[in-house]
Amino acid sequence: MLNNIGPMGLLLIAVVVLVLFGRGKISSLMGEVGKGITAFKKGVDDGKAEIEDSVAEARDVTPENEKDKA
Fold it and tell me: Over the range 34-51, which residues count as b (16 or more CB within 10 Å of their CB) and which as e?
């Protein structure tokens, strides 16, 4: 269905959206999308750091006599 939309079709859709919502509303919406993306990336980075910290804190609890058998 979307395979038939060319550059002119996309331009027409952009103009219609701009007319319907206005430049200010679209600008504020894009600002909110940017803030959401930034917050998502920060959350992913915090999650990675938390996992790396927990792995660093993990310690080997294998008994000494069992370590040589592996």
Answer: eeeeeeeeeeeeeeeeee
